[in-house]
Design brief:
Rossmann fold; three-stranded antiparallel beta sheet; 16 strands; globular
């Protein structure tokens, strides 16, 4: 069995491999202590890099959904009811082989179908209208599945209050304690979501803000930031109907401490968010991209979704008729991504991303050509061999930290044992320093003896 099929860590060319397929909730005490001492200080140092970025893929949503006891949208689809289905199936499988993926997902299918549609339009072929309708139906089904993911998460997140009320009003004290224990164990997803985001966002305010990049369409990250009180800065400008702006200004947030003039300080708890593939609440209307007021977990029949939802909602690749949307706003988003990570003293933490998008991988490869950069990859598995191939392709073992396996990707294990807690850790450091000064004997001047 390859090490990539086990739980293993690689930090600065030092590797720790667990022979068992799964540690369980925790490894044995000695191994746990060794892993914590190896991983946590290392991640804490990386998190204080001059530039810190976090890349989240669909595995992040899957991890939170698993802890909440629900499921996520399926990325699988077929070409049923499509004209020229055999030709499309052949081409999409060729595409996924080149991309290094197994079964083609819904994004691959929409992308290939859109390419065929563009060709048929040039030929003014009679299949255009039928293919266009089939793409719109596939897009609508995909959007419904994304909406259902949010609905399922919302229902599980807020089930906590209902259970808490039932415990308080309807059962005995003994039963209440028993039920409360089960409920806390079952419903920790929101706590894990908040703790995970705060571990990255609570950087020293004098350093550059955390940059979050994601390929996800749902708004789990935004919802988690709301719960954690994290302020999000993105390219959208406006209050009632925020509009996507190409002229990005590096806006930040400051405050003036009482009694101090002319020395504004950075506000803590601010992140920059870039959704590389678009979002469920982005719409293309009247030539501009807007972010609409769509509540987390809104059903597909919400007023902000119209009858031609696949034409207006901005997810990549989309079937919008305006040719400009094939490049706008995604060119600006990827420019932000490349400019952010490809700079000296930059660190990128990758979680839940399977290295299946070559345009994203290429930027990480370019980033690693800068000697002072570092990448941390946290993954449930080898993602069909793509992570191993990526590491072999780029080399540079000293610049890549790996945390691979069920144990390390489990978001509860990650938050409780390995991710640093900056606000708590700083207090611990200060406590240790004060204790050292208070209780370590000090020399008395002129005597050479200790007090």
């Amino acid at each position: 069995m390859s090490k990539w099929e086990k739980n293993f860590v690689r930090i600065n060319e030092q590797e720790v491999i667990e022979e068992e397929e799964d540690f369980g909730n925790f490894p044995k005490v000695e191994m746990k202590q060794h892993l914590v001492q190896l991983i946590k200080p290392w991640l804490a140092a990386i998190f204080q890099s001059e530039h810190l970025s976090l890349l989240l893929g669909s595995g992040f949503t899957t991890a939170i959904a698993s802890k909440a006891g629900t499921s996520v949208a399926s990325m699988q689809a077929t070409y049923d009811n499509f004209p020229r289905a055999d030709l499309l199936e052949k081409k999409v499988r060729e595409y996924t082989i080149v991309a290094g993926r197994g079964e083609p997902n819904v994004e691959d299918r929409i992308r290939v179908a859109n390419l065929l549609l563009e060709g048929l339009k040039i030929l003014e072929h009679e299949d255009c209208s039928e293919l266009d309708a089939a793409i719109n139906e596939l897009m609508s089904d995909f959007l419904k599945s994304i909406s259902e993911t949010e609905i399922n998460l919302r229902d599980k997140f807020y089930e906590k209050k209902a259970v808490e009320s039932a415990i308080a009003e309807e059962i005995s004290e003994e039963k209440r304690e028993e039920e409360a224990g089960e409920y806390v164990e079952k419903l920790t997803a929101t706590d894990l979501l908040v703790s995970f985001l705060l571990s990255f966002a609570n950087r020293t305010a004098s350093r550059e803000r955390l940059n979050i990049f994601t390929t996800n369409y749902e708004r789990l990250i935004e919802h988690g930031c709301d719960l954690a009180g994290i302020r999000v800065v993105d390219r959208f400008v406006g209050c009632l109907e925020p509009v996507f702006r190409s002229s990005r200004v590096n806006v930040d947030m400051h405050y003036n401490p009482p009694g101090i003039r002319g020395e504004p300080r950075y506000l803590e708890g601010v992140v920059r968010l870039t959704k590389l593939h678009g979002s469920l609440d982005w719409k293309y209307t009247n030539g501009v991209v807007r972010r609409v007021g769509l509540p987390f977990g809104a059903p597909i029949d919400h007023p902000e979704f119209n009858s031609e939802v696949s034409d207006s909602v901005m997810i990549y690749p989309n079937s919008a008729k305006d040719r400009e949307t094939s490049e706008y706003p995604y060119v600006e988003l990827f420019r932000d991504y490349a400019a952010t990570v490809c700079q000296p003293n930059s660190a990128l933490v990758v979680y839940g991303y399977g290295f299946g998008d070559e345009h994203i991988n290429r930027v990480i490869e370019d980033m690693l050509t800068i000697p002072s950069t570092h990448v941390v990859i946290i993954s449930y598995d080898n993602a069909g061999g793509r992570i191993e191939r990526f590491c072999q392709k780029v080399g540079r073992k000293q610049q890549i930290t790996l945390l691979i396996g069920k144990h390390f990707s489990d978001i509860e294990n990650l938050v409780e044992n390995y991710l640093p807690q900056p606000s708590v850790d700083v207090l611990k450091f200060r406590e240790a320093e004060i204790a050292r000064r208070m209780f370590v004997p000090q020399k008395i001047e002129g005597t050479g003896s200790a007090a």
